[in-house]
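Justification of resources, computational component.

The compute hours requested in this renewal are based largely on the per-chain cost of generating structure records like the one below. Each record pairs the submitted sequence with a full structure-token output. That output is archived, and it is also reused by downstream analysis tasks.
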Amino acid sequence: MANLIILILPVVAIFLMFRSQKKRQQQAASMQATLQPGAGVRTIGGMYAQVKAVNDETVELELAPGVVAHYTKGAIAAVLEPLEYDAIINGRPVEVDEEPVADAETAEDGEKPLSLAKEADADASETK
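The structure output for this chain reads:
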């Protein structure tokens, strides 16, 4: 029985490795098939660019304004969401859902914000 486990364990490990590799290849192929001009991408070298044209086996990437280079489709590591690409290229935060609190800012004349003044008044009245 122990000999059977020793023989089956490597076979199962190899099967799982091939299966995960095949799944990654399918994901890469589907991503490469959906490449469209205007999409932001990251190459396997870590370079960010925008897709200008998609050919049979190559992709034209705009690295900087007016600078276009040809890469194989296999060199594309990820297609980025427009907000994520903009955040990386322009240094903007990805999520801008949070609104700044107006009360937390100081007034122009150097006074305490209204919310802080109310808290200070409430604390002073409690101590009396």
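Residues 119 and 125 are 10 Å apart (CA to CA). Confidence is low (pLDDT under 50) at residues 102-109, 112-118.
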